[in-house]
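So, could you explain the following?
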Amino acid sequence: MSKGSGWDQRLVVGAGGKGLVGHAGAVLLRKCADRTGLTNGLNKVLPRGNGPGWWDRGTVLVSLAVAIVLGATSMSDIAVLAHQGLVFGDPPSEPTVRRALAGLDETALKRIGKARAKVRTHVWTLLARRPQGFPWLTVAGKLLSGWVVIDLDATLITAHSPKQGAAATFKKGFGFHPLGA
């Protein structure tokens, strides 16, 4: 079973201040995975468990990816999705995530790769049908047309700070990471 809640049926993006969802980027990521067919494609190529209450493994993997976007660094952090239970439904449990990941062997990884490639081809085909770009996209009051690709990257810049309580970065150094475009 997919454990869906029909959460995306009434989804709109706006700035009106009503019905706001924290971490909306995660909601859009999940909706993108669902609407492009990635979630369903993964569910089709990964074996299911038996019995009532089993999660589709593709849904678990997509949920785990969304949790990582929200800052999860371990399987137990799948719980970060609990605060969006009204949107996504209850998140899979840590043991469910462990079982889903433990079942991934080389054959399953190849099937996942093929499912991802199929979805990627589908998305690029849809985008190719719109060579004028996204006419509905307006930024700062300007209607964007054509393709605009911005490649963002962060580079750690080492800097010493004698400040009290300064903490090291995840790479155990001190400094900052400006974004470059």
